[in-house]
Amino acid sequence: MKNSSQYAQKLKKLFNALKKGAEKSKKPLSGDFIESLVFAVLSEKSSESCAKAALKKILSHFVDFNDLRVARIEEISEVIGADIEGPEKCALRLTVLLNAIFQKYDCLSPQEFLDAGKKNMQDILEKLNGMSAFVCDYILLTVLDAHAMPMTEKMIQYFKTYGIIDPEADDAQIKSFVERRITAANAYTFYSLIRHDSELANHKAAQILGEDKPKSAAQKKSKPKK
């Protein structure tokens, strides 16, 4: 990535500023693999608050996650509600992933998977039908305690808006850049703070990096009148 040292400085400046005064981020208490997977699918394209509300509805409506696995798409979509972006597509992804796990292990609590080791687990996750990079990384980070950085579309756009990464970098390059500069011990705190700020109407980054924010083409052309 071009000018990587410059971007690294801005990343560090933003992270340190967001940490000041913020409560220490704690990983989700639930170590349940399937519950984390369901939450990750719900939260990939919707806010965490909406995803938490939708997960609560799922846990209340369905007997268990196996009941969710065999439910109709229309029923799941109605349960999670319109606050989840593309509820029918989200419902379909949930059933596809849950069925992929069930078909592979003949259950939804595969001890064989949990005993496979982090590297093997990552390989297994990546090959599951319906898996996305975000969901895979979320599980690696929160359930398997691996060094991973889940990236939502809002987070990536946030990095680009405030000039924290090379605007020409693709998603994989951005993820790799961040993971190299944020330690495993700080990974969840970083993810939590950045995700939270990216979902606010008024980003704190605007003040933190205001002076560093690159000018638009229109701003560069406009000159003060003499």
**Proportion in β-strands:** under 5%
End-to-end Cα distance, whole Å, is: 40 Å
When the domains are counted, the total is: 2
Number of separate strands = 0
Q: Which oligomeric form is depicted?
A: single chain
Number of helices: 14
Question: What is the CATH-assigned architecture of the largest domain?
Answer: Orthogonal Bundle
Class of secondary structure makeup: mainly alpha
User: Percentage of helical residues?
Assistant: 55-70%
CATH homologous group name of the largest domain: Hypothetical protein, domain 2
Helix/strand order: HHHHHHHHHHHHHH
Shape: globular
- pLDDT under 50 segments (min length 5)? 215-222
Largest sheet: none
Average pLDDT over all residues = 89
Q: What gyration radius follows from the Cα positions, in whole Å?
A: 20 Å
CATH topology of the largest domain: the name is: Endonuclease III, domain 1
Question: Short summary of the structure?
Answer:
With 226 residues, this protein is an all-alpha fold. The chain has 2 domains: 4-25 and 149-208, Endonuclease Iii, domain 2 (Orthogonal Bundle), CATH 1.10.1670; 33-142, Endonuclease III, domain 1. The protein has 14 helices and no strands.
Question: Mind explaining what this structure looks like?
Answer:
The protein contains 14 helices and no strands. The protein is mainly alpha-helical. The chain has two domains: 4-25 and 149-208, Endonuclease Iii, domain 2; 33-142, Endonuclease III, domain 1. Mean pLDDT is 89; it is low at 215-222. Helix 2 (33-43) crosses helix 3, helix 2 (33-43) runs antiparallel to helix 6 and helix 2 packs across helix 9 (133-142).
